[in-house]
Amino acid sequence: MWDVLVIPAPMDIDGKDTIRWGGTTTRNFTIKSAYENQNIRAQPIEGDWKAVWSWKKPNKIQTFMRMTTHDRLLTNFRRRIWDVGASPTCSRCVRINETIIHVLRDCPVAIQTWIKPQEWWIKLNYKDSLDLVGCGGLFRKLDGKWIKGYLSKIETYDDLSAEMWGMYLGMELAWRQGFHHLQVESDSKSLVDMITRKVKFNGNPPILVRRIQELLKLNRHVQFNYTWREGNKSVV
């Protein structure tokens, strides 16, 4: 039911529906994603994991902590070890191997805070809620002053869908408010790559991606920036 509720009502600009693979965020099939969806028996790892496994917080944070503790985050360094990546270095700072400790602590991008927009520009920060039942965002000027905010209940348990709704509703509101020089900051690299056409789809992109791209035709002065969630903390 939630999968149906998250899909917006059809419009003429949406085009035809296409069948998609559910194992990746881009909805494109890969052998790797099929392999990862199989039930693989993991090797036991020595250590005291009681604090990690008993920590009572949102499930996605628990999962992240467990993957980090078990050194299973798919960093460039680990992908190179598994022979599924060309370079082990960080794709953001391009300085050193992208290990977990680099991703979480040492990378300059990981420790950055909110960056001011250019003069005469307005910045949109948005995010999905921690329990994945809604999304919201806010607009701010160069001096960090709050201009306008929004919040919407979308009833989806799909993290990417919540991110798409957050961006779409924010950009639609920006157009209605006349914010024609807009910097959109997102902590979803997958979505930013989809919007900026760095991802090639087998068929049509998701409906909300297409609608965001239609909004871009109305306003060409829009910039998209990817930031770590720490850099997007202004809307947490």
UniProtKB/TrEMBL annotation:
Molecular-function GO terms, alphabetical: nucleic acid binding; RNA-DNA hybrid ribonuclease activity
Looking at the record, the residues that make up the RNase H type-1 domain are 134-234
Mark the transmembrane ranges.
none
Q: Where is the Reverse transcriptase zinc-binding domain?
A: 29-114
The protein here is known as Ribonuclease H
Species of the source: Trifolium pratense (Red clover)
Q: Cite the source lineage.
A: Eukaryota, Viridiplantae, Streptophyta, Embryophyta, Tracheophyta
